[in-house]
Write a structure and sequence with these properties.
The structure holds two protein chains of two kinds. By secondary structure, chain A is mainly α. In chain A, about 75% of the residues lie in helices and about 5% in strands. Chain A folds into two domains: about 55 residues; about 220 residues, MetI-like (MetI-like fold, Orthogonal Bundle), CATH 1.10.3720.10. In chain A, the strands form two sheets. In chain A, strands 1-2 form a two-stranded antiparallel ribbon. Chain A has a two-stranded antiparallel sheet with strand order 3-4. In chain A, a hairpin with a 6-residue loop joins β3 and β4. By secondary structure, chain B is α+β, with helices and mostly antiparallel strands. Chain B has eight helices and 20 strands. In chain B, the strands form four sheets. Chain B has a six-stranded mixed beta sheet with strand order 6-7-8-3-9-10, with helices on both faces. Classes of the chains: A mainly alpha, B alpha+beta.
């Protein structure tokens, strides 16, 4: 009798405690995430809003903006207003820079993937104790600033640089090969800067690969090539996706590398946008260019993720 | 025993496998030779680290022997990579491809062999039926139970119709009931497909119930090859007798011997004739082995070959174990008695009893 009478109260009490615990823990979680959310809000969302607003304002003659609505920035992206009759003329200059940047970023991503995959595979197949050393080696470039490292590349590839001097000294060539301030230099710099961002996610996904699956595939008459395409690559898809995103997006907006190694002659999007805020003194145009870049990346991302995740689903 | 070469599916000849280099060298297999007949359910049995899995991996082609030959139907396959051997493996972990469905897993081997699509589909359907997994063919391998994964792994390995199927402790991850079911299932599959099965296990009961022949391994060597009955009733070495089933060990002295039979005297002066394996010459102090079910209790201590005090009675349902503390000392002697509705005598602990041996029950073995 007593137990029967007692138990419902005990249960409801326990439930009450539990509900309270859930509520407090939810509140605590919200509190804990507050600092991060504040930082994201102030330094992530707010600047984006400002860029968005500025892109629809008119440029002030000495930099900054004038507070009246204008779509000139977006028009200027593709057209130029004729000084005399005020008509719009199609000028693809900016578009060409965008397309070139996309090309650079795509080539960078593809080559990083081709170089990074065997590297990551090699690392993942070392004995566990050795693997951390390899990861450490891959992260060594992060210990110094990208600007410094890019300058170092400059010293290696310039006309009187390490490579040319060595080749001339060996008698292979008698005139230095011009490498600095060319597309080649930009491409080399981008590859150098972003290769670790490809290797690390690939490694983390290959390291989790169950190598008994590879044995199973060999056992089932798969050749080495088939094992690679049918087992290893499909199973390391998360790493491939992450690595490609981590290389493609920053490569597209790269600023320091093309600036130094391209010598300001071969512009990429990052330099173009920076120019609008500096010598160009056209902040709205800079803002519009930044937003167009973002939109382009989002669209590319959407298709990329939709395609690759679709393939994972259907095996 | 000479074997006809044409009848052997696999012949392992003088195979050595050494891992490591320099001082860290470990011989996982120490000059092993064995012949496995066509259509046979052959089991490699031994404790972990005895080299049974190493031998299986050499036959599969995942490792290559340091020395020796492995013949498949008379042809040396030891240097071939795994994808060039008509041999498939069922892995202990199943190793199913997580990014493929059940049907895609089963069809993988045929696809890699470049079979036409229609043939693959037909064969996959046949395999799904064989392992009773038709209903789950479109599932991912992560969405099915352990027992079902086991069936898919079997179907996947059988689909390309290998000459030999290798099974690496495939039942060890299953619970007791499922394991019993799969043991019967495996026997059925072997019977229906007519493929030679090489089965690796450390479970002696599994080995005895399923195999046509068993090779007992220890420390990189094969100690004995024979039918389950051979291995159980006529173990060649003390290790084999000890590893398989329960065994009593009794010290004694050889007083005389003739072809295959020795007369052994106990400390109590009682004598018994005991068989011994070929190529073994027992002399002086020896150890006799007697299976617990090959001995019986008698109420009169004087009538037994040896005598002692009943120390413990353990009831197992199907049978009862009597632990007898022998008069001469040493380990307790265990007598197993099958229970029936009309057990003639009941014993109580503490009474003096005699132990009688059935004919040929005792054997003298190499230590």
């Amino acid at each position: 009798m007593t137990t029967a009478a007692l138990s419902p109260t005990t249960i409801s009490k326990a439930a009450l405690f539990e509900a309270q615990a859930v509520k407090t823990s939810a509140r605590r979680n919200r509190l804990l995430s507050l600092p991060a959310l504040t930082i994201i809000g102030i330094f992530g969302v707010l600047p984006l809003v400002i860029i968005c607003v500025y892109s629809f304002l008119a440029a002030a003659p000495y930099g900054g903006v004038q507070w009246h609505f204008s779509t000139d920035a977006y028009l200027n992206f593709l057209f130029q207003r004729d000084i005399f009759d005020d008509t719009l003329q199609f000028t693809p200059d900016f578009l060409i820079i965008y397309l070139r940047s996309f090309l650079f970023a795509v080539v960078t991503t593809v080559i990083c993937l081709l170089l990074g995959f065997p590297t990551a595979y090699f690392m993942a197949t070392r004995p566990p104790a050795q693997r951390n050393w390899w990861v450490l080696l891959i992260t060594i470039p992060f210990w110094s600033n990208l600007l410094v490292r890019t300058l170092a590349i400059m010293f290696i590839i310039r006309d009187e640089g390490l490579i040319n001097n060595a080749l001339i000294g060996l008698g292979v060539i008698d005139k230095p090969i011009t490498m600095l301030y060319t597309n080649f230099a930009i491409q080399l710099g981008l590859l150098y800067a972003f290769l670790p961002f490809m290797v690390l996610p690939l490694y983390s996904s290959l390291e989790k690969l169950d190598f008994r699956l590879i044995e199973a595939a060999y056992d089932l008459y798969a050749t080495r090539r088939q094992v690679l395409w049918r087992v290893i690559i499909p199973l390391s898809k998360p790493g491939i996706i992450a690595g490609c995103l981590l290389v493609f997006i920053p490569a597209l907006g790269a600023y320091v590398t093309p600036l130094i190694l391209g010598g300001g002659v071969h512009l990429m999007i990052g330099d173009l946008i920076a120019q609008q805020f500096g010598s160009g003194r056209n902040w709205p145009l800079g803002c519009a260019q930044a937003l167009i870049l973002m939109a382009a990346v989002l669209v590319a991302l959407f298709f990329y993720v939709r395609n690759t995740s679709g393939k994972v689903q259907h095996g | 025993m000479p074997e006809q070469p044409g009848k052997n599916a696999i012949e392992v000849r003088g195979v050595r496998k050494v891992f490591g280099t320099g001082e860290n060298q470990v011989a996982a297999l120490d000059t092993v030779s064995v012949s496995i007949r066509e259509n046979e359910f052959f089991t490699l049995l031994g404790p972990s680290g005895c080299g049974k899995t190493t031998l299986l991996r050499l036959i599969a082609g995942f490792d290559f022997p340091t020395a020796g030959e492995i013949l498949l139907h008379g042809q040396d396959i030891a240097p071939l990579p795994p994808f060039k051997r008509p041999v498939n493996t069922v892995f202990q972990s199943y190793a199913l491809f997580p990014h493929m469905t059940v049907a895609q897993n089963i069809g993988f081997g045929l696809e890699m062999l470049g079979k036409p699509k229609a043939e693959i589909e037909g064969r996959v359907a046949q395999m799904l039926k064989l392992v009773k997994m038709e209903a789950l063919k479109a599932r991912r391998t992560s969405q099915i139970s352990g027992g079902q994964q086991q069936r898919v792994a079997l179907a996947r390995a059988l689909a390309p119709q290998p000459k030999v199927l290798l099974l690496d402790e495939p039942l060890s991850a299953l619970d007791y009931k499922l394991r019993k079911e799969m043991q019967i299932e495996l026997k059925r599959l072997q019977h229906e497909t007519g493929i030679t099965f090489i089965f690796v296990t450390h479970d002696q009961e599994e080995a005895l119930t399923m195999s046509d022949r068993i090779a007992v391994m220890s420390a990189g060597k094969i100690l004995q090859v024979g039918t389950p009955r051979d291995i159980y009733d006529r173990p060649a070495e003390r290790f084999v007798a000890d590893f398989i089933g329960e065994t009593n060990f009794l010290p004694g002295t050889v007083v005389s011997k003739r072809a295959g039979v020795a007369t052994v005297k106990f400390a109590s002066n009682a004598t018994i004739s005991a068989g011994f394996p070929e190529g073994f010459d027992p002399t002086g102090e020896v150890t006799l082995v007697v299976r617990p079910e090959h001995a019986d209790l008698v109420p009169d201590p004087a009538k037994g070959t040896i005598a002692g005090t009943l120390a413990n009675i353990v009831y197992f349902g199907t049978d009862t174990h009597y632990h007898v503390k022998l008069d001469g000392g040493g380990e307790n002697f265990i007598v197993r008695h099958q229970n029936s509705r009309s057990s003639p005598v009941t014993y109580a602990t503490g009474v003096k009893v005699g132990i009688q041996f059935e004919e040929d029950a005792a054997r003298v073995l190499k230590d």
